[in-house]
Amino acid sequence: MTKPGFLLVKKPKNITSHDVVDRLRKISGIKKIGHSGTLDPFATGLLILGIGKGATKKLSRFLKADKEYIGLLKLGAVSDTFDKTGKILEKEKIKKPTKDEVKKVLESFLGEINQTPPLFSAQKIKGKPLYQLARKGIKIKPRAKKVKVNKIEILNYSFPYLKIKVKCSSGTYIRSLANDIGKTLGCGAYLEELKRTKIGSYSLEKAVELSKINKENWQKFLYKL
């Protein structure tokens, strides 16, 4: 019998985090599987799966851990979901920010900030996720919450695209950060791409591609408790 453990998986685009869990249930034959925190379907990157009851009970240590992301923002436009999957509205007659202006705005988000989650998010109002209400046309303003941005840096900037690396506390929405950066710059922005590169001390470099996991080899990728 397989002992409980953790799997570091590279989540591909266009599937949900729960889809990854379902796939591992079929591969392993184990029903008790959970994950370390949802990645949006369009996002890629590190997902830590707890395999077996003993592991799922310990997933909270990853849920609460700091995270690192690489995000690609598109400036000069906004989205109702704060990312490329929503309704995009291109801004007209905008001033293209300089790299120095972008750098100063990014620095203004360092430290503890009040952040409003996206309307299309998993935050619950009276037990129902906001995205379910939003899809029904019921728009309720999400509750703002305190999050912490430990580090934010420019990896590349060539208008309208801005690539950034963000180290932040658990619960930080990079989509909201992208939207707020766009507001502060005065030109608008939304998230075009997102990749989670770290959860606590665990790195994407140590993760295995989902497509390479099968019934014969999945146990060799397991980190034992």
Keywords:
225 residues, Pseudouridine synthase, two-stranded antiparallel ribbon, 6 helices, 21% helix
Question: How do you describe this structure in short?
Answer:
The protein is α+β, with helices and mostly antiparallel strands and 225 residues long.
Strand content: 35-45%
| Series of H and E elements | EHEEHHEEEHEEEHEEHEEEE
Structural class: alpha+beta
CATH class annotation of the largest domain: Alpha Beta
Total strands: 15
The second-level CATH architecture of the largest domain is 2-Layer Sandwich
Radius of gyration: 18 Å
Globular, elongated, flat, extended or rod-shaped: what is the shape? elongated
Count the helices. How many?
6
- Mean of the pLDDT scores? 90
Query: Into how many domains do the coordinates divide?
Result: 2
Structural summary, described in words:
It is a single chain. With 225 residues, the chain is an alpha+beta fold. It folds into two domains: 5-64 and 200-224, Pseudouridine synthase (2-Layer Sandwich); 67-198, 2-Layer Sandwich (Pseudouridine synthase), CATH 3.30.2350.10. It has six helices and 15 strands. It starts with a strand and ends with a strand. The mean pLDDT is 90.
